[in-house]
Amino acid sequence: MLGIDGGAFFGRNRGMRIVCCFALLLAGCHTRGYVAGTPTVPVVNDHDSTPRDGHTTSRVAAREETPPAVETESSPPPYRKSETESIDGVNRVLEDIYFAYDRSEISSDALAALQRDAELLCDILAEFPGLKVIIEGHCDERGSAEYNLALGDRRARRAEEILRVKGVPAGAAQVVSYGKEAPQCTEPREACYQQNRRAHLSVKR
After folding, report:
1. DSSP type of residue 166
2. In angstroms, rounded to a whole number, what is the distance separating the alpha carbons of residues 120 and 117?
3. Which of 47, 67, 83, 95 is 20 to 30 Å from the Cα of 156, by its Cα?
4. Main-chain dihedrals φ then ψ at residue 195, nearest 5 degrees
5. What residue spans define the domains of the chain?
């Protein structure tokens, strides 16, 4: 009996050893690839651009590079009028100065016109110093030719004095009197006479 029981005991123990070995084998299957003492390393997706260790990856740095500056054509220089264009432009806007009958005094309206003329003349003379300002004295048809030549001269010189005070260089102005020989209007009426009693300004080379 004892022999039989001892055999049964050893038989049971061997069965238990088989079961334990089988359990260990299953546990080893679940821990395959794990080595004790070796820290696991997280797998980083190659497409992930999140910085590691406080440093940006080369992929992020490549995206954040400043694009090269694009060269642009410089603006063309501003257009500058020629001397001829400037002369024509100024002569179109210079104003005549008008006088009362048989007078050479400057009225308030004439003074305002001379102020505007002086500004135009100073600008063009600053750009083209070699130009000349011609101041013509004119009269209506009444009176003798000699008298009107003298009156036209006084009118032109009075206008030249005002221009000089306003800044036009004295050496740039030339005074000439036409008397009644170059009328602007030829009808024998007061409105026409008024147009002829004037000082006419122009710019020439």
Report:
1. T
2. 5
3. 83
4. -65, -25
5. 95-204
Q: What is the pLDDT of residues 73-119, one digit of tens each?
A: 666 667 778 999 999 999 999 999 999 999 999 999 999 999 999 99
C-alpha 33/C-alpha 36 separation (Å) is: 10
Q: Residue 83 to residues 91, 93, 122, 133, 137: CA-CA distances in angstroms?
A: 12, 16, 14, 14, 26
- Please say whether the beta carbons of 102 and 121 come within 8 A: no
Contact yes or no for 159/105 (Cβ under 8 A): no
C-alpha to C-alpha distance for 78 and 97, rounded to whole angstroms: 34
Query: Can you name the CATH fold of 95-204?
Result: 60s Ribosomal Protein L30; Chain: A; (3.30.1330)
**Alpha carbons 165 and 68: distance in angstroms, whole number:** 58
Amino acid in position 28: G
The mean of the pLDDT values for the chain is: 79
Dist. CA 104–CA 177, nearest whole Å: 13
